[in-house]
Design a protein that fits this description.
Helices cover about 65% and strands about 5% of the residues. With about 675 residues, the chain is mainly α. Helix 4 runs antiparallel to helix 5, helix 9 runs antiparallel to helix 10 and helix 16 packs parallel to helix 18.
Length: about 675
């Protein structure tokens, strides 16, 4: 079904990729608008009759049914005759419209304004601009006289006024007073009773050095309020007038926090340099703390942190003190969400150092240090097929629970997550890990792990097809990341946004969203995620919607950097070129996909080619691998891509395995 978007912030419209849909007469539009006002709830037919006519004519119920039938034809033109509707549904005594949460402009407006309230000013401003840009005129513009629309129109109008004023306040916080004045002048011309708008306008003028104009605005406000409402200005306006007259420092734009922080950093670093001896072990442990903080800043910070980390471990080993080495290795408890290593060689070096430190630690003492070393091993062995990773994760979790140390348990749960890919179909287990992380971290103020828990649950709920829950976890991760300056979380929530477009069938929007998300990865310091992910995502997008792979030849279409995904892409190009025997050989030579978030997706790519060329050997092995994930969406557990329900692939494979074996096609 082609997605349909609805606009009510102005005249009521419905649109698809082909343009604006023809909704026939005014009562058809009224039925649609009334159902949108109901926000996915059922509206009984009797209520629709009452809302459409002051005095219902004979046959009014039949007329409503005719309007609904016409709307269904417009909204779902490709629906087969007598097939159930998916968008405008019959339920109980009436009808309900069930669009996606982002398919109605009013709902997107509310979500953007709500999200902006929890963001820093620099991030909030574009969200508010985006929200206000959705308005094309008064809400439900052609239904101004209808009782059923009045409450919703008033509510949305008030939210819009608040958003205009919040945008002005955000611009003031960013030092952009000159931009505020003309917008607020227009705003107040139409809404002169808005006291907060008068306050913001006066403050903006004052910050431009126009004290007299600011006081003039406050006098105008007093006169307007007295003439139109018969009231005096409220306490905020009276206080602002007094502060302007006294030129109070509190009215000036606050000093940039980064400047104060920078001076503090410089002084503290100089004091530390003077006080702590150059070769002291304390310097090494302090350095690891700095490296850990550097890793969550994103971009070059993450890449630099990886390099400095291995240097710190080497320096610790030179002291010949296994306890110090264990502390230095275990102190890097940076949450990790992506299951492919950014630097496999570095990971092996860290695992070797951790294993050596474990052996060298005396007896069964230093349990916390041993736990951190084991958790580190579990994290760094992500995606490998040895038993050591799961074993280390299990041992670490047992110790952490015994010691009852929240921070230690959060670290080990991250290791348990990384080792929860021993087979397909373990999204429920990862959902449990994410839920425990969120509860644990929120109780004990472990913000980075609370973000991690939300990202894990975003992935797990996506795999299970529960997109409303995944949406909530994406929003929660964004709120926390914005408040605590954790930019890397936004990389994953942006990719999730592209996945949501893909899952909703919005192909052109999804492709644009994937390209935008991939651009954000450039310089983010995550090569384990970045390499090959864009062409892989676009391939999955096309295949999920039954489109050709787009790989016409190995030579031309595989020139992109497919990274680790090239072995799964090449057979598509071979099939497209008619080289089935070569494709069969390539399929059979494929290794088992890495045990990570894209395991099921790679298996489904194998299955797609094997179904095309009738390779039963490959189909049998893929069927066995995918069977535990029968209730999941292929690839959606990554939070990045989806190839649709795994059960569809299993059904196609089962059918093909019962069919006669095809002869091998020649090249």
């Amino acid at each position: 079904m082609e997605p349909v978007a609805f606009g009510v912030l102005g005249p009521v419209v419905a649109e698809s990729s082909g343009g604006t849909l023809a909704l026939k007469g005014p009562r058809h539009r009224a039925v649609l608008a009334r159902l949108i006002v109901a926000r996915r709830r059922v509206v009984p037919v009797a209520h629709l009759v009452e809302d459409l006519w002051t005095v219902p004519p004979p046959g009014a119920v039949g007329a409503v049914q005719t309007f609904v039938a016409a709307l269904r034809r417009a909204l779902e033109p490709d629906r087969p005759p007598r097939a159930p509707a998916h968008l405008l549904v019959t339920e109980g005594p009436g009808y309900a419209l069930r669009p996606e949460p982002d398919a109605v402009d009013a709902w997107r407006f509310e979500a953007a304004v709500g999200a902006a309230a929890n963001l820093p000013a620099a991030d909030a401003l574009p969200r508010l601009e985006e929200a206000l840009g959705l308005w094309r005129g008064p809400a439900y513009a052609e239904f101004t006289q209808e009782d059923w629309a009045r409450g919703e129109r008033s509510r949305l109008a008030e939210l819009r006024l608040q958003a205009v004023e919040r945008r002005a306040g955000t611009q003031l916080a960013l030092g952009r007073a000159a931009e505020v004045v003309p917008d607020l002048d227009v705003h107040l011309a139409d809404h002169p009773w808005r006291e907060d708008a008068w306050r913001l306008l006066a403050l903006a003028l004052y910050r431009q050095g126009r004290q007299g104009d600011a006081l003039g605005v406050l006098r105008r406000a007093r006169a307007v309020l007295a003439d139109q409402l018969g009231v005096d200005p409220g306490p905020q306006l009276r206080r602002l007038q007094a502060d302007i007259l006294n030129q109070e420092p509190c009215l000036d734009l606050p000093a940039e926090p980064t400047a104060t922080a920078g001076r503090l950093w410089t002084r503290a670093a100089a004091a530390y340099d003077r006080t702590v001896a150059t070769g002291a072990r304390a310097r090494l442990e302090t350095t690891v703390s700095l490296i850990r903080n550097l890793a969550v800043t994103g971009g070059g910070g993450l890449e630099a942190a990886r390099q400095h980390r291995v240097e710190a471990i080497t320096a610790a080993e030179e002291f010949g003190d296994p306890e110090l080495t264990a502390r230095v290795i275990g102190a890097y408890d940076v949450p990790a969400i992506w299951t492919r290593s950014d630097d496999p060689e570095l990971a092996q070096r860290i695992v070797a150092a951790a294993e050596s430190a474990l052996i060298a630690l005396p007896g069964h003492s230093h349990e916390a240090a041993r736990c951190r070393l084991l958790a580190t091993i579990a994290l760094e062995m992500r995606g490998t097929r040895t038993q050591r990773g799961p074993q280390a994760a299990h041992e670490a979790e047992e110790i952490a629970r015994r010691l009852d140390d929240p921070a230690l348990l959060a670290f080990t749960l991250n290791g348990a997550f990384m080792q929860s890919f021993i087979r397909a179909g373990l999204a429920p287990r990862r959902d449990e890990i994410g839920a425990e992380l969120i509860a644990l971290a929120s109780r004990h103020g472990l913000v980075t792990y609370e973000v991690l828990g939300h990202l894990i649950r975003l992935q797990a709920r996506s795999a299970l097809g529960d997109f409303p829950a995944a949406d909530g976890h994406a929003a929660a991760a964004d709120r926390l990341a914005g408040r605590h300056e954790l930019p890397l979380a936004g990389v994953f929530t942006q990719w999730y946004g592209a996945l949501r477009q893909a899952a909703s069938g919005r192909l052109s929007q999804a492709e644009a969203a994937y390209r935008s998300a991939a651009a954000r990865l450039d310089g983010a310091g995550m090569p384990g995620l970045e390499r090959g992910i864009l062409p892989f995502a676009l391939l999955c997008l096309r295949l999920a919607h039954k489109m050709p792979s787009g790989l016409e030849s190995v030579e031309v279409d595989l020139q992109a950097d497919w990274g680790p995904f090239r072995p799964w892409a090449e057979p598509f190009a071979m099939v497209a070129a008619g080289r089935h025997t070569e494709a069969r050989a390539a399929l059979r030579a494929l290794p088992e996909p890495p045990r990570d978030l894209l395991y099921e997706a790679c298996c489904c790519l194998e299955a797609t080619v094997a179904l095309e060329i009738g390779d039963q050997v490959v189909l049998e092995r893929v069927y066995t691998r995918l069977l535990p994930a029968a209730d999941e969406l292929a690839g959606a557990g990554s939070g990045l891509v989806t190839l649709g329900p795994v059960e569809h692939y299993l059904a196609d494979i089962a059918t093909a395995l019962r069919a006669p074996v095809r002869p091998t096609d020649g090249d």
